[in-house]
Write a structure and sequence with these properties.
It is a single chain. By secondary structure, the chain is α/β, with parallel strands linked by helices. It folds into two domains: 245 residues, TIM Barrel (Alpha-Beta Barrel), CATH 3.20.20; 72 residues, Putative flavin oxidoreducatase, domain 2 (Non-ribosomal Peptide Synthetase Peptidyl Carrier Protein, Chain A, Orthogonal Bundle), CATH 1.10.1200. 46% of the residues lie in helices and 13% in strands. It has 14 helices and eleven strands. The strands form two sheets. Strands 3-4-6-7-8-9-10-11 form an eight-stranded parallel barrel, surrounded by five helices. A two-stranded antiparallel sheet has the order 1-2. β8, α7 and β9 form a beta-alpha-beta unit. The chain is globular and about 60 Å long. 45% of the residues are buried.
């Protein structure tokens, strides 16, 4: 049984990756329904937290049905990170996660996210300060290194463990790679199989099928898998992987009725959490993914992304279900 602090998260947990503008409570809710074992908030700016910025504070919202959950923060100033850790603790998540992996330029240029991979001593000092600032278990998500000349994740893993982190998630790319090319899990496996390492090690990058999950689990020996982009529009990825690992088969793809019902729940939660106007607008990015691959979906999709009235949106979703039940039989 894998544990972080006192929280048990399963024999081989599946983690929902923290994704900006994706991993909000509505999305987390549908992923939890499909079997995600541990989830994270979108990453939160520590400067926004300590300045009480509305957007940052809202991202602290967590609900009992989501647990266990971690709140992820990013920043570069040690004192600000420490103060933010106290704010996070008051929100009562199961853990606090530090983002040392975001490759986006506006984050990296401030030496936050993956930017701090250019200064490992500071990364270690910052982590140690946060560990000492909170009673929550502290975990880290990071990358293999800054570029191919500095893939020092083995050293980094040892040093972060030595200052008190209780789990480490590793994305199998450098910052320079961004999300391009194939994730390299070789070093993730080396970290996991290092006899000095005793904390859980989670692998991340390119996991998009149950078959690949099983292969990487067996090949690299990781304690669990973190899934990001493959879950967008397809939260059933968690269900499929668990079925394949535990029972040896992959369930049938969700039919149109199930796709529509999950899209409806996602829309409902989005409106409840963000208000009708914002909830409707921010749901638009998800429709293409929920109905990807359906023939002649374009006209329906255009209606979904242009309509503002929530009641009409639910009617359009019912239209989609009724139309494709006839077309796909």
């Amino acid at each position: 049984m894998v544990k972080i602090g006192t929280t048990e998260i399963g024999e081989f947990p599946l983690l929902l990756a923290p994704m900006e503008d994706v991993s909000d409570p509505p999305f987390r809710s549908v992923c939890k329904d499909q079997g995600a074992d541990l989830m994270y908030t979108e990453f939160i700016s520590v400067e926004g937290l300590i300045r009480d910025a509305d957007k940052s504070i809202q991202k602290l919202d967590i609900y009992d049905e989501e647990r266990p959950i971690g709140i992820q923060i990013f920043g570069a100033d040690i004192d600000s990170m420490s103060r933010a850790a106290e704010i996070v603790e008051a929100a009562k998540p199961e853990l606090l996660d530090i983002n040392f992996g975001c490759p986006v330029k506006k984050v990296v240029c401030k030496m936050a996210g993956a930017g701090i991979l250019q200064d490992i001593p500071k990364m270690v000092r910052l982590t140690e300060k946060i560990v000492k600032s909170t009673s929550l278990p502290v975990t880290v998500k990071t990358r293999l290194g800054w570029d191919e000349e500095s893939m020092n994740i083995e050293e980094v893993a040892e040093r972060l463990q030595d200052v008190g982190i209780q789990a480490l998630a590793i994305h199998g790319r450098t910052r320079k790679q961004m999300y391009k090319g194939e994730a390299d899990w070789t070093l993730i496996g080396k970290v996991k199989n290092n006899p000095r390492i005793h904390i859980p090690i989670f692998g991340n990058g390119d996991i998009d099928t149950p078959e690949k999950t099983k292969l990487y689990k067996e090949r690299y020996g990781v304690d669990g898998i973190m899934i990001g982009r493959a879950s967008i529009g397809y939260p059933w990825i968690f269900r499929d992987i668990k079925s394949y690992l535990n029972h040896g088969f992959i369930p049938e793809q969700p039919d149109i009725s199930e796709r529509v019902e999950v899209a409806k729940k996602h829309l409902t939660k989005s409106i409840e959490w963000k208000g009708e106007r914002v909830g409707v607008v921010e749901m638009r990015r998800h429709y293409t993914n929920y109905f990807r691959g359906l023939p002649d979906i374009k006209d329906f999709r255009m209606k979904l992304v242009s309509e503002m009235d929530k009641d009409i949106l639910f009617e359009i979703l019912d239209e989609i279900r009724n139309f494709y039940q006839d077309v796909l039989v």
